[in-house]
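cron nightly-structures :: item 1 of 1
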Amino acid sequence: MCGIIGYIGDKCAADILISGLSHLEYRGYDSSGVALMHGSEIDIYKASGKLINLIEILKTKKAVTSISNIGIGHIRWATHGLPTTANAHPHTCTCKSLTLVHNGIIENYQELKEDLLKEGCIFRSETDTEIAAHLIASEYGKTLDLLEAMQNAVKKIKGAFAFCAIHKNEPDKIVVAKRNAPLVLGVGNGENYIASDIPAIIEYTKKAIYLSDYQVGVITKNDIKIYDEKGKLIPNKIEYMPFEAMAISKLGYKHFMIKEIHEQSDVVRNNLQGKLIEHNKPIKLDDFKLSSSDIKKLSRIQIIACGTSLHAGLVGKYIIEKYAGIPVDVEASSEYIYRETIADKNTLVIGISQSGETADTITAIKQVKEKKSHIAIITNRADSTMARLADSLIPVNAGIEVSVAATKSYMAQLISLYLLAIYLNEAKGIKEYKEEIARLKQELIELPNKIEALLENTSEIQRVAKKYSSYKNFIYIARGINLATALEGALKLKEISYINATGYGAGELKHGPIAMLDENMPVLAILNTGIVYDKVLSNCEEARARQAKLIGVTNYISEKDRALFDDLIMIPDASDILSPALNIIVLQLLAYYIAEYLGKDVDQPRNLAKSVTVE
C-alpha cells in the first residue's frame, strides 16, 4: 500500500527519491515525504495530498536538497491517523537524530507507546510508525550502533513492517528490516537503492536482492550486508529484475488503465505460449508440481483471494468443477484467516494475487501450509512473497500493471485458471468433455484476435458511458459463469467513478434488490447464448416492468427481444464458458469512459491502493 524509496551514492538523492516515489504512486497514497542527509544533518520535507505538493516544496529548497547524496522517501496510505502533513512519513525520534519510513502496521503500538512515554519520548503524530522511530532510537541509546538498535527493536514489534532508517551519527549508511511487507534492494555501482517495489528503481538498476522476513540489512554506497533473525551475516543473493522501464510508460495513452486494457490480447498470448500448443495437444504447466496420481487423490480445492482476484477465483470454481469434477470453495482471504482452517494433504489450495504481496492472502497461505496442503500460487509477480511460499507457481505474465484498478492482471488470472482446469481434467483422464475441451482450446487460441476486434471499435461503449455517466447507482446482473463478471464489472465502476454499483445473481433480483428498481436505476445485464440465456432474459423483463433503464451485454439477441433494452453492447461470438474473457472488457471500458467523462483520477482513485500489504 504505502511506498518506500531509499538511495545512497554520489548522485542527487532528492531527484532519485522523487522519481522513485512517482513510480510508486500507483500503489495508492494520501501524503508523501523525504528525509535528506548531508553531513550530520537530516532535513525532512513532507506534504499531504498528491506528490506534486511535495515536489513544489522541494523546488524552493533546491540549494539545500541538491547537496544530499543519501536519503529515504515515502508515500503513505493512512491507517493510523488522518492523511495530514504531521502524520506523513518520515518520522523522527524525540531528539530528531533518527529518521524512519515504514510500510505495514504495528499491532502492539499502544503497549510500546506507553513504555516510551515513560522514558520521556515526545510524540508528534497519531501514527503507529512514530512508535518505531522512538523505539529504535531508544535501543540506539543503549548500543550506539544503528544495526544493533534495529535488530533489538524489531524483536519487540508485533505486526508487519518494512523499515528504512538513517541516523545523524552514522551518516554513511541506511539500515532496513522486513517482516510481512515487501522490500527490495537495488544493487548499483558505487550506489545502492531500497524500494518497496521494482518500478521505483528499475530505471537505475536491473540487479536486486529481495529481503526475506526477519532479515535486517545495512546498506552503504559500496556494500550491502544482510543479517538473519539470529544476527548471522548471510550471503547476498542477487537476482535480475524482470521489468523494463518502458513498462511504466503510458506509450501515448491518456491513462495507464486504458493502455492496460488494450494490452490484454498480448497478455492472453503470453499466457498461452508454451502451455497451449494446439487444440488437440495436452496443456503443459511445467511449474505445477502435483503428479497425475496426486491430482486424482484430491478431494477438494480451496481458492483464496481478495477483490478482483476473488472474482477470478469464482470463474475458476465454475470451470474447475465442470471439467475436473473436484469440489471448489472460493473464499475471501480476510474471512478465511479468522475461522477454523479445514484442509489436509488431499486439498489443493490456490492463492491468487496480482502483486503476490496481499497481506490477508499471505496469512491464509501460511495457515494452510501447516495442514500439509499443496499450495499453488497464481500471481503477476514471480518475485513476490506468495510466489516464494508456493509449492507450485502459475505466473500470469501480465507485465507490470500501473493503474490501481486491475484489468489485464484479471484477464491473465482468468486464462491461467482456464489452463489449470483443462490441465486437471487431462491429468485425471476424464473423457466426458474431450470434444468440448478441444473446442475450448481452439477458442482460447482465437481469443486474442477477438479481443482486438472488440477494442478496434469502442464508440458504442463510449456512447453508453456518456449517456449513463450522471446516474448515481447501478445494478449489474448475470447468472452462471458470468456472475463473477457482473461482480467484477460493478467493482470496476465503483473503484474509479465512485458510482455505487452492485452485482447480483440475476435470479436473486426478485429476492430483495428489485425494490430498488425505478427509472433512476440502470440495470446492466450480461446474457450470452447458453443454458441461462432465457433465464437472464426473463429477469431483464422483470427489471423493465419496474421502469429500470436496461443495458444488455451479449453475443446474440433476437430481433423481438431488442426492444426490451434501452442499449445493447455486442461482443464477438464466444461460447458461454469463455464469454467472461470478452464480457469483462466491455465492463472495464464502460467504467473507464464513465470515470473519464466525470473527470475522475482514473489511475489513482481515492482511498485505494494497488498492493494491499496490511490486514
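cron nightly-structures :: done
DSSP finds 20 helices and 25 strands in the chain.
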